[in-house]
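Appendix B, record 7
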Amino acid sequence: MAAEAMTRGFDPAAVMADMVFSSPATDVVDVGSDLGNSEIMNSFLNTSDVTKDCIVTEEILRKVYDAYSHTCGRIFTERWTTPTAKMNAQLYPWHMLNDRHFFFRRIVLGYEKVRRTEPDQREADMDEAFDEDLRTTGFSRPLKNACNGQETCNKVNEIIEAHAASETLSRLWSALVTNPLEYARGGLVDEKREEELCVGLQESLIQCWKEGLTHEMAWLMCHASHHAWQVNFLMEAAMFGSLLDDGKLSGELDRAN
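Structure tokens (predicted):
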């Protein structure tokens, strides 16, 4: 995919950045289970912030989370037409639909740990967010293409409101953002509701494809991913949720029953 994107004229450095980000975008929801399973390849656990003292703390996880979230700022808001950016945008709904990591369960478990500050949307390149030893630097800059940070933000409204298929696109945004966020805020585990959320997202994606809304669907999935990392912090909730179960789920959430 990367080779084809570069051959087609997409910026090689940007494509490489997209490919690198796909690792933390996968690993973020599995920090707890990987820790319990002694998994050494988790992108969060093998940063120098963790390996220096081999101690995982809330402060360290937030620093690493923020660094990775800044590296995807431009991926989802600026480079969303790049094939490798679209690949990364697939990971957010994949976590929900594949359910290998019990994404919905984890956002409920971890939502109380999510910051309650106003979204501060920022960006940084990988070699700015981390030093040569893969240690966070704390560096970032304001994101140029930031939205207003609302649940259904100004940029989403610009896409949906004047569109002939506004109802279909609105339903997709709800399935990607509004409904999962509502479930996380509720704070109660409901297996039936989790199944409904999965089915609702599947149906929304199918309907968009049926109506030929592939361009709009790609943008909405990218922006929903941006929201999950930097606006509503559902990825942060999933990260902490992977650590905050009662012990019964540890090491089992990412394994087939």
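Remarks on this record: The chain has a mean pLDDT of 91. The radius of gyration is 18 Å.
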